[in-house]
Design goal:
By secondary structure, the chain is an all-alpha fold. It has one domain. Helix content is 72%, strand content 0%. It has eight helices and no strands. The chain has helices at 3-6, 12-24, 30-62, 69-94, 115-127, 130-165, 169-173, 189-219. The longest helix is centred in the middle third of the chain and has 36 residues, at 130-165.
């Protein structure tokens, strides 16, 4: 047996480098950038879907006593399925998921005792649609966390160019009467902290992206029987 193979052992530095690579992996991953972009546009969709559904439910339940609210509520349930289709497309395309399509809404044929009974049967099917209720949970989730994700994503995209541009800032923007030799060394603390904190920011982006993946698999995919 070759002596080189016999004495080839792992050193403490190997373990340290492995840990460092794992720590820096999200900061160097293209998928993290896609997660950040997903969270960036999430503010638009989170507020759009949240405000739309809240408005429709408020009007629907507020006017249900005079029956106007009934078609509004049914329309909201059908609309939730449409939102689920679009959101599933986004999460599959940007977060790299492969969430399958849910089961279609069960169709109700015309009742033998008249159109009214057929309508109420269809309305009951729409209202009991479990997939629509799960999409409502997804809309609520997006509405709650969209501002957090947007803030993280903006910082993620702004921080690297800010660090790269920092050496040119004193000469470009700081007035001539400011003496950088007195306390000017503190200026470099910002870029150094930015470099140190960027991997932690990438981990936060990845963590929130993974939370969207887990929630999306449950809320936007097929409903278990």
């Amino acid at each position: 047996m070759p002596l080189g193979g016999a004495f080839e052992v792992a050193t403490p530095n190997d373990g340290g480098m492995t840990i460092l690579k794992r720590f820096l992996a999200p900061a160097l991953s293209w998928q993290t950038a896609r997660d950040a972009f997903y969270l960036l546009i999430g503010l638009i969709y989170g507020l759009l879907w949240g405000c739309l559904i809240i408005t429709l439910y408020s009007v629907g339940f507020g006017t249900v006593v005079i029956w106007i609210g009934v078609p509004i509520l049914l329309l909201t349930q059908v609309l939730l399925r449409g939102i689920g289709v679009y959101e599933r497309m986004l999460i599959n395309g940007l977060l790299g998921e492969d969430i399958p399509e849910p089961e279609p809404l069960a169709s109700v044929g015309p009742a033998s005792d008249g159109k009214a009974a057929g309508f109420f049967a269809w309305a009951g099917t729409v209202w009991r649609d479990r997939h629509a209720w799960r999409v409502l949970s997804w809309v609520t989730w997006r509405f709650v966390v969209c501002s957090i994700g947007f803030s993280l994503a903006v910082t993620y995209f702004v921080l690297p160019p800010s660090i790269l541009a920092s050496p040119f800032v004193p000469w470009a923007w700081i007035p001539d009467d400011v003496n950088l030799s007195q306390g000017g060394e503190w200026f470099w603390l910002g870029p150094i902290l930015g470099i140190i904190l960027f991997p932690f920011l990438a981990w936060a982006i990845k963590g929130l992206g993974d939370a969207h993946r887990r929630m999306g698999r449950w809320a936007l995919g097929p409903v278990e029987s």
